[in-house]
Amino acid sequence: MDYLCETLAHDKLILVNFFKEGSKESKKVDKILNAIRKELEFKIMIIKVDAISHKFLADKYKVQHTSTLALYRYSKQLWKHSGALIKKDKLLSAINSIL
Length: 99
Description:
By secondary structure, the chain is α+β, with helices and mostly antiparallel strands.
């Protein structure tokens, strides 16, 4: 997944969703991210990483919970949310504060 490292170096804002395949929470987050993708279209890139299948990436990016969202630009982590399901409005607020 060198692709992830290369992509995070981009000047565009990147939202990475570290998830666990098949979890109920992951499905709920997917719905939120799809709405965000439609709303922000070309302003943000969204990448999903299965934290179980790609444990080395989860370790590298210090993901301790399989439900983690993080915003990156130029390889720098600008924001992170782990654990409880985040509401769409809170996530949009975090994204817009960085855009």
